[in-house]
């Protein structure tokens, strides 16, 4: 279907998109946890309360992202099964040839 050069170009585009998605995820994680947990700017060091909050926030964010990914995979699998069933239930069209 595609030649080697086209396959490499497609793979490069996919990898770039995955990197952008990862960076967006990471940026959202940092921004969210920073805004929720950091509120004392009088010291360079984090307070124990801030450290605990950051740990819980990142853990919750990562677990949520993992669950969303799992659910997306489940829904995608269901959709593919439905498409296969729909294709199988359609009558086969003949080519008009007799062999």
UniProtKB/TrEMBL annotation:
Region (Disordered): 78-99
Primary location class: mitochondrion
Subcellular location: Mitochondrion inner membrane
Keywords assigned: Chaperone, Disulfide bond, Membrane, Metal-binding, Mitochondrion, Mitochondrion inner membrane, Protein transport, Translocation, Transport, Zinc
InterPro entries: Mito_inner_translocase_sub (IPR050673), Tim10-like (IPR004217), Tim10-like_dom_sf (IPR035427)
Domain of life per record: Eukaryota
Domain Tim10-like residue range list: 11-73
Bilayer disposition of the protein: Peripheral membrane protein
Entry-linked Pfam families: zf-Tim10_DDP
Domain description: The twin CX3C motif contains 4 conserved Cys residues that form 2 disulfide bonds in the mitochondrial intermembrane space.
Record family assignment: Belongs to the small Tim family.
Function: Mitochondrial intermembrane chaperone that participates in the import and insertion of some multi-pass transmembrane proteins into the mitochondrial inner membrane. Also required for the transfer of beta-barrel precursors from the TOM complex to the sorting and assembly machinery (SAM complex) of the outer membrane. Acts as a chaperone-like protein that protects the hydrophobic precursors from aggregation and guide them through the mitochondrial intermembrane space.
Complex and partners: Heterohexamer.
Descriptive protein name: Mitochondrial import inner membrane translocase subunit
Naturally occurring in which organism (per UniProt): Gigaspora margarita
């Amino acid at each position: 279907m595609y030649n080697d050069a086209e396959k490499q170009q497609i793979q490069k585009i996919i990898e770039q998109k995955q990197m952008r998605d990862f960076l967006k995820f990471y940026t959202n994680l940092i921004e969210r946890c920073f805004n929720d947990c950091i509120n004392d700017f009088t010291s360079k060091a984090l307070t124990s309360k801030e450290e605990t909050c950051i740990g819980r926030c990142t853990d919750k964010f990562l677990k949520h992202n993992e669950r969303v990914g799992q659910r997306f995979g489940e829904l995608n699998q269901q959709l593919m099964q439905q498409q296969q069933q729909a294709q199988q239930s359609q009558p086969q069209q003949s080519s008009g040839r007799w062999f």
